[in-house]
Amino acid sequence: MAKILIVEDYPVTQRVLSLTLRNNGHDVAVAGDGQEALNFLTGEVVDLMLVDIAMPEMDGMTLLRHLRNDDRFQALPIVMLTASGQDEDRAEALSIGADGFLTKPTSSRELIDTVNRFV
Predict the structure, then answer these.
(1) Per the CB 3.0–4.6 Å rule, which of 51, 65, 90, 114 could disulfide with 60?
(2) In this model, does residue 85 exceed pLDDT 70?
(3) 96 near 64, Cβ under 8 Å?
């Protein structure tokens, strides 16, 4: 079982991702934006993060940059989520240091396969 932090601002997507991951044996925490995720990580250790790109306050790309510039999070697997599926988003995320990329909506099988690849 892995501890996974979902960073997603849309409540329905939070619930769907959380339920899918919990039903597959994972412990799940949720943050509504990048700043909330950074605050969470000051007191918690996670095994993987699923990060939406488009969020208020601090978007996913900014969060990814913060994490990859912090030695504590260099090895943390981070999978980016986006509804746009734009090749530019994928290229930027991977160049910053994302480990994976999923386009929403994603199937439960694809989500679990991706998570299992990294934990």
Answers:
(1) 51
(2) no
(3) yes
Helix pair angle (108-118, 11-23), 10° resolution: 70
Which tokens in the block code for residue 7?
A: 């960073």
Q: What is the mean pLDDT of the chain?
A: 94
Does the reported pTM lie above 0.70?
yes
Three-state secondary structure string covering the chain: CCEEEEECCCHHHHHHHHHHHHHCCCEEEEECCHHHHHHHHCCCCCCEEEEECCCCCCCHHHHHHHHHCCHHHCCCCEEEEECCCCHHHHHHHHHHCCCEEEECCCCHHHHHHHHHHHC
CA separation (Å) from 93 to 27, 48, 63, 109? 25, 16, 11, 22
Q: In DSSP terms, which residues pair with 54 in a beta bridge?
A: none
Six token digits for residue 114: 């991706």
Query: C-alpha distances in angstroms, 119 versus 47, 59, 79, 113, 116?
Result: 7, 24, 12, 10, 5
What's at 110, amino acid-wise? E
